[in-house]
Every structure is written in C-alpha cells, then in structure tokens.
Design goal:
Layout (H helix, E strand, L loop, with lengths): L4 E5 L3 H11 L4 H4 L1 H5 L10 H15 L5 E7 L10 E7 L5 E7 L5 E9 L1
Antiparallel strand pairs: 1-3, 2-5, 3-4, 4-5
C-alpha cells in the first residue's frame, strides 16, 4: 500500500510527561527515567495512546469532516524519547485506514492498527 500520509516525529520526554498529566496514566515506565533504567527497556517508553493520538491527528487533518467510527491497535515494540518514528496512514482495498508507526533506526513497528471514518 502506498501511504496517503507519511511524516516523521521525534517524541520527547516532555510529551510523555504532558500526556501522563492529561491522561492520568503516570506509570513510571513512561515518566520516571530512574525507574525505567532498571527495566528491560532501559529508559522511558511512550504511551501507546500518545502514538495513536499523533496518528489520529493525521487522519482528522486529512479527512476533516468524517467522524471516527472504529479503530483497532497493537503495540508490538516500544517507542523511546529522542528516537525518530515514521508515522504512516494508508487506505486498504476495503476502504479502511491502515495506521502504522515504526522506529526509523531499525524499522521495528511500534504501533499498527486500522481505523474507519464515516
């Protein structure tokens, strides 16, 4: 599938912290570098829904008058502050939107799913 939209984003710890404050998800894996350094990740990781929020912003800018109907999502790998992510939106043959984010450095998928707009 050829992407309808593709952009790069470098998430920051400040964004993790702000998202934790807004969402109420202040799990230390997202906001506490000292705690996170002792985990298998070795550093803080993004909230999955923060990544989806960035992707959904791309969808809503592309289809501004079409309301959201459905989404499915998986988070197969972590995303870290300071590492470039490639965000893509593609249209499937069935008319749904494929949404994906991957780490640029190693091309590991950090978010994949589908969304449907009216």
């Amino acid at each position: 599938m050829t992407p309808l939209i593709r952009m790069e984003w470098v998430p920051t710890q400040e964004e993790f912290d702000r998202f934790a404050h807004i969402s109420g998800d202040d799990n230390p894996i997202h906001v506490d570098p000292e705690f996170s350094a002792r985990t298998r990740f070795g550093r803080t990781v993004s909230h999955g829904m923060l990544i989806y929020t960035k992707l959904w912003g791309m969808v809503s800018r592309t289809f501004p008058a079409r309301p959201h109907r459905f989404q499915s999502m998986m988070f197969p790998n972590p995303a870290y502050a300071g590492e470039v992510l490639i965000l893509e939106i593609s249209e499937t043959p069935e008319g749904q939107l494929s949404v994906m984010a991957m780490r640029k450095a190693d091309e590991k998928i950090v978010f994949q799913g589908q969304a449907q707009v009216a």
